[in-house]
Amino acid sequence: MINRKKTTIISVIALFCLLLVACARQKDTPRERPLFDEDGMYSEENFIYNSALEKDGAHLIVDGKTEYCIRYEDTTDESVLTAVNELKSYFDTLCGGIDVRTGDSEGKAIRIGKYGYTPPAPLKKTGAYIVEIGENDVLIYAENVYGLTNGVYGFMEDYLGCVFFDHETTYIPKVGSMILAEKTDVQEPAFESRDVGDNETWNHASFAQKMRVRQDEAFLTDSCHHSVGLIPKEILDAHREYYAYINGARRTGAYWGQAAQLCFSNEEVIDLLEEAIVNKAKSSTSDQTIWWDISQQDSMNYCHCAKCAALTEETNNPAAPIFRCVNIIAKRHPELKFSTLAYHYGSEPPKNIEFEDNVMIKWCIMSSYGANDYSAPLSEGKSEIARKQYKEIVGWSELTDNIYVWDYITNYFNYLLPFPCLDAMPGNIRLLRDCGVDGVLSLSAYNSRGFGDRLKANFAAHLLWNPDLNETEFINKFMTLYFGKDAAPFMIRMYRRMQESLTGKLWVYDEPTLLSKHHQEGYLSSRMTEEYYSLLSEAVEACGGDETYLKRLRFERLCLLYVSIKSEYGTQEELALLKDEFKELCAEFSVTRLNETGTDTVVDFCK
Ligand SMILES: [Zn+2]
User: Fold this and answer.
1) 20 to 30 A Cα–Cα from 536, which one of 11, 79, 354, 445?
2) pTM of the entire structure?
């Protein structure tokens, strides 16, 4: 009895001791704090706290000092050198400098290059990379310059917590220490070719590289809509039969206001197009693979001759003569690659056609005359056009493995008009990934500023790398760092309210005062616009006079002013004041062009 009592007491004491040890250990090794709170808001403070937590791995910065250097394998590639320099500037900012050299050296280093490393498995995609974090070293490994630049910028974002806002602004969290746990991180992009057509990415190559997009070596698609121009004019002039036959005649010039097309069933036309492409390929100095394009003009004037009509009938697609023509030339030239458009009258997958392996289909999330719906992902089938397009891309994915897609994330008639497509973007990009699409261009406001452009360019680029990213966290983090943590909740709410009050289709050519008046009852109503102004005022109030944040908020105001002026919300006197302010803000942000074609200028808009 006594013994049993003794045993029980000993057990209780032992258990108590164990608990004490466990508690002490927990105290010694503090846990990481969550980066997002229950409302989904990003905590910069917790990121900084976590970065300083002691762990086995690379102690890149300890109390504002670094013992590391940057080493990179010798290269003359401008993009790699720029990336190395960007990484250097991170350490310059936080530690007052870092030694950077080519080659190798003893001691702690961030190495950029191959450095004799054998990857756990061969990398699959062109821009893939590996970040290998060891006890003393970080290796950023890739097999080509695309992967190396991606690796440096990806490392800066994913591990060092940086965010690239635009080509001249990078957010660097002000950490005192940066300690990284040991890890092998293999990064493969979801799409082989990724491009974001935004005013920053298309005007500043270094920014595109930071976004890990436009590294399209495998997809230089030789443009499109230029087949007529491939055949010398004097030959075409001498052969009316080379042109499309429509309503009883060969149409050699514009017809019904649209450009002339070729008769792609004419065997001589096929031979001439073949000759033109072969000559282009021979004279090309590019060391990259080019997918030579043979496709329709941007015109509905397709051929109705007996042969073309029969093919159209057989395949249920009026672009079938073009598909057949491309297939014939592709078969004759297996050493070359070709592309054609699944667009306009040819957007639906044809019946009874098998595509050659060296032919790529280029499809748009946009049907004839730009019809589309970005109010929700296509897979939700919210509108007839969304259901049609969903069916199209799934159908194409069953026909070919080579698909390139144009996606659109702005309003091309009204760049500054709020365009709430943030809900549609992730779902659509996941759908394209699931359809095995190889390359995507997310086209934004590429030749002027547009509503939400900084966020959308960043979001699109990261979705193209990893479509499974947590979109709410991504947006909230970006907004928190871009507008500041105090103003961000109001801006997140403003963007959310735009999405929630959206009714009916959201079209890239929406004109809220003409064909898309439903938006004036929905997300662009006078009542909703007032709500946005009010949220924006609260954001301005909250950011405590910080000029960086205030400037970014002024751009948001510019977009709201565009809504008010466009919809004439206010008396003539009120509108006159808004127009003055609009002009001032356009000058501040160098906005002169309000739509894609540049036909709508600030001066015209404010008349
Ligand atoms: Zn024809």
Assistant:
1) 445
2) 0.92
